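Section 5: illustrative case.
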């Protein structure tokens, strides 16, 4: 026989989620998002930096070869034309997505033409950058690629 109290009391199986339980789930999702989004953005910046460094390395190899092939010549023209690097009229290959030639040190601007004035076979420096990367410049020089702008 049922008592009056057992008929009025709600059954747990029909109760569903409480507001507190739903809020806890929302807080956990918020914390996970707060951790994941910055990590994702940092990975994107590092990918952009890798593309810029790779392009700087490729240009450095081509410029060393150019100076070897053109002993005594003045500095080559280095440009981005139609999405390709061009060194003194010769296509060096496609640019990395978004990569630009950088202007001289301290000027955070991207350009499609490098300033090659004053370059010699041993003293040349080319800034390469990706505007969305965390590293502002990679410099390609006669001594290699560096994670810093040209001096």
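Designed sequence:
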């Amino acid at each position: 026989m049922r008592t009056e109290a057992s008929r009025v009391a709600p059954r747990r199986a029909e109760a569903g989620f409480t507001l507190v339980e739903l809020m806890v789930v929302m807080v956990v999702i918020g914390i996970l998002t707060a951790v994941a989004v910055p990590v994702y953005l940092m990975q994107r910046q590092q990918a952009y930096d890798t593309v810029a460094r790779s392009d700087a390395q490729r240009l450095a190899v081509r410029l060393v070869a150019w100076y070897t092939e053109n002993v005594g010549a003045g500095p080559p023209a280095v440009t981005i034309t139609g999405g390709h690097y061009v060194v003194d009229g010769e296509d060096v290959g496609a640019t990395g997505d978004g990569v630009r030639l950088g202007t001289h040190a301290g000027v955070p601007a991207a350009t499609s033409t490098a300033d090659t004035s004053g370059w010699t076979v041993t003293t040349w420096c080319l800034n390469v950058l990706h505007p969305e990367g965390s590293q502002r410049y990679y410099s390609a020089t006669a001594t290699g690629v560096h994670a810093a702008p040209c001096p």
